[in-house]
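Write out the 3D structure for:
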Amino acid sequence: MKKITVLLFNDFVNDNRVLKECKSLQDNGYEVQLYATHFDNKLPKEEVVKGFKVTRINVGRFEFLLFNLPLFWIKTFFQCRKDEILHCNDLYALPPAYFLKKFVNKRIKIVYDCHEHETEAKIYIGKPIIKKLAQIFEKTMIKSANKVITVSNSIADDYVSMYGIQKPALVLNSPVFQTVQKQDHFREDLGISKEKTIFLFQGKYLPGRGLDNLIDIFRKLEPINKDIVLVFMIYGEGSEKVKEQIKNYKNIYWHEKVSVMEYMNYVASADWGIYLMENICKNHDYALPNKIFDYVLAGLPVVTSNLKEMSRFVKDNGVGYVINPEDQEMVVTLLQKIKKETQKQFVPNLMKTSVKYCWEEQEKVLIKLYNSL
């Protein structure tokens, strides 16, 4: 049985992509060992998750990247010297694999799994020198990878253009397929009448996801359309600010984050999914987020920004509307036109798309890639 060592620079708590990949590899005959960080000392140092081993490495109790990262690299470098295959989740995890292959064990196989456009993310906005250094490091180290994985076709094409590598494999952030029955949790929990159409935004609060714009759009909708409401089910640093911001709105509701087991049932309790992400960096323009796939799986048509990858996905599969989020009046006009029965026209396409883009299809790409190493 071949062993795959997975490197991940976070505590492995909510990383659903890594969970699915590790489980798929373990279920298909590989022995999987995951090394993660151990910032939260309430988490076990070692555990078995879905059949694979997880070891958390102490990199300090305080998050200070210039200290935490080198410590993670040093510890994983010595831990993985004799391993066969290293699966590096994003750019933070690539350096120890690169240096091991270059100076210690040239037989090591490296799979570089880019969870986003690594050097085009919003963290580099206004930091041209750091961004350039990151691109130089990535260009140097990516050549050591035997296989590269990305999460959208535009990112894959850009990596070919930037680094002159073979086109990376595409493993999308799709959910595991399941039949999701229509639910009504939001109406029951929040007292929303059945006559109203519920738009849902769910996920982690992060700048650039368009929440302030979305709130402003629904502020404008409130006096002219009483039948459309918005539910936020968000979490993370900054989410409490949103909760405070919307408390006086009659058409915007707040729902606390729910467990993973309940999550899809709550998504299926909305009528539409909405995501007006801002085009603040190339990574956003090229993103194909997991929440879009979750909406589709739950049978929700979507309203999305006119960003490159999201708009292509929505248009090609006929699962909703694409709009320029900067034109608030146009968004308001579109949302006004959406009635209860509007959803029905998208149902056949939603069903086909949920099957076509499920994790089971992405798993085939992942396993084929590993079998070819």
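The mean pLDDT is 95.
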